[in-house]
Design a protein that fits this description.
Length: 239
């Protein structure tokens, strides 16, 4: 088994998980791959560690002894709005996954999970953050002003933080502005083949972006659905 590319070397992963055997297995695998690993078995302590140690990504369990993963995720997001967070959950219901995404998680893995799959998702995150992009850092989409570098979006007098995947989704749609982009291409380009998320994952992030960009999210003017295919970005409102 080969170690990962240099881009992953010395990256720090914070594991917030209360099951020692899971922490031990993840620590061994991640350290073998060249990552530095920090861990905490409690939610509140984990959130504090995320703030003080500045990790490059967080692996967060949903079920913790002192507070649930949703609350921990929200606490981390207050201080680290675009820190990648992968949530571990024993629940497979779609509503639980949607709630996890809404609380600020960028991705989720359902227990029992493959350690190799989890590491592949983390690798994909770091590959995407290191790649160059022809898309400008500042975008205007209708009445929304987006700063991709700062992961912020300002619209209708309010400022919103954008997650890692929200930024990447906007980058891709902007690259192909005015053209339809399929769900399959979005999955492959943003989440990667190793991640294997469902089409519903794409839809969930589109809903989150519409709430921040559209004046009336139920009747979008800028992030349009191409039924049976995918989505299209329109910068200016059609006359």
């Amino acid at each position: 088994m080969l170690k990962t590319a240099d881009v992953q070397t010395k990256k720090t992963i914070l594991i917030i998980e209360d099951e020692p055997h899971i922490v031990m297995g993840l620590r061994d695998a991640l350290e073998f791959e060249g990552f530095k690993v920090l861990s905490s078995g409690k939610g509140r302590e984990g959130a504090q560690l995320a703030a003080s140690s500045s990790p490059d990504a967080v692996i967060l369990d949903l079920m913790l002894p002192d507070m649930n993963g949703y609350a921990v995720c929200e606490e981390i997001r207050k201080k680290s709005p675009f820190l990648p967070i992968v949530m571990l959950t024993a629940r497979s219901q779609e509503t639980d996954k949607i709630r996890g995404l809404d609380s600020g998680a960028d991705d989720y893995v359902t227990k029992p999970f493959s350690v190799n799959e989890l590491i592949a998702r983390i690798r994909a995150i770091f590959r995407r953050t290191s790649r160059p992009s022809a898309v400008p850092e500042s975008l205007e989409i209708g009445e929304a002003k987006v700063n991709l570098g700062a992961h912020t979006l300002r619209s209708f007098g309010e400022e919103h933080q954008l997650s890692f995947y929200e930024v990447e989704l906007l980058r891709l749609l902007y690259e192909r502005v005015g053209m339809a982009v399929s769900r399959d291409e979005i999955l492959q380009r943003i989440w990667g083949l190793d991640a294997s998320p469902t089409n519903r994952t794409v839809d969930n992030f589109i809903v989150k972006l519409r709430k921040k960009i559209e004046r009336t999210p139920e009747k979008p003017l800028h992030i349009l659905t191409v039924y049976g295919f995918g989505y299209k970005l329109v910068l200016e409102r059609a006359i």
